[in-house]
Specification:
Layout: H1 13-30, E1 34-40, H2 46-60, E2 70-74, E3 85-89, E4 101-104, H3 115-119, H4 130-134
Parallel strand pairs: 1-2, 2-3, 3-4
Helix pairs in contact: 1-2
C-alpha cells in the first residue's frame, strides 16, 4: 500500500492502522529479533511508537525472558538511544559512542541491485571491492 502525503503529516488513519496491524501480525507470527526502519524515529507516529513497545514486550515473553530485540532507526535523539540503535547511513562516527550504532554503505552507485553496474568492466563491474567497504 503506497500513499502520498506531506512530509510533516501522517497518512490517512486507515493506512497507519494497516501498518500497525500488519507489523504486529508479523511480530506475532515470526518472532523477529530485529526490526529496521529506514526512517527518522519510529515511523507513523503513534503506530511506530506502539509497535516499538509491542516488539520489545513481545521479546520479553520469549522462553529466556531476556530482551534480545533490536530496533534500528535513523536520527535517534539522545533521549531515545537506549530504546533504538542509531542507523548512520554512509558515514562513520568520529568518536566512541556510549550506545550501539550501525553504519551501512552502498556497494555501487545506488542502494539497490543495478544490472548496469554489474555489466561494467573490471573485476567487480561497477561495485566497490569489499576491502574498500570494510575499511570505510
Amino acid at each position: 500500500m503506497v500513499q502520498s502525503h506531506p512530509g510533516n503529516a501522517l497518512p490517512d488513519i486507515s493506512y497507519v492502522q494497516d501498518y500497525y496491524d500488519r507489523t504486529r501480525d508479523l511480530i506475532d507470527q515470526h518472532n523477529p529479533d530485529f526490526i529496521y526502519s529506514d526512517s527518522r524515529l519510529f515511523p507513523l507516529g503513534w503506530a511506530g511508537m506502539n509497535i516499538g513497545a509491542y516488539f520489545y514486550n513481545h521479546n520479553l515473553k520469549t522462553p529466556n525472558g531476556k530482551t534480545e530485540a533490536v530496533i534500528n532507526i535513523k536520527d535517534v535523539p539522545d533521549r531515545l538511544l537506549k530504546a533504538a540503535v542509531l542507523d548512520w547511513e554512509s558515514a562513520l562516527m568520529d568518536n566512541i559512542r556510549p550506545y550501539p550504532w550501525q553504519a551501512e554503505y552502498c556497494i555501487g552507485n545506488c542502494w539497490h541491485y543495478d544490472r548496469a553496474n554489474y555489466d561494467l568492466t573490471g573485476e567487480l563491474g561497477g561495485y566497490q571491492h569489499p576491502r574498500e567497504l570494510v575499511h570505510c
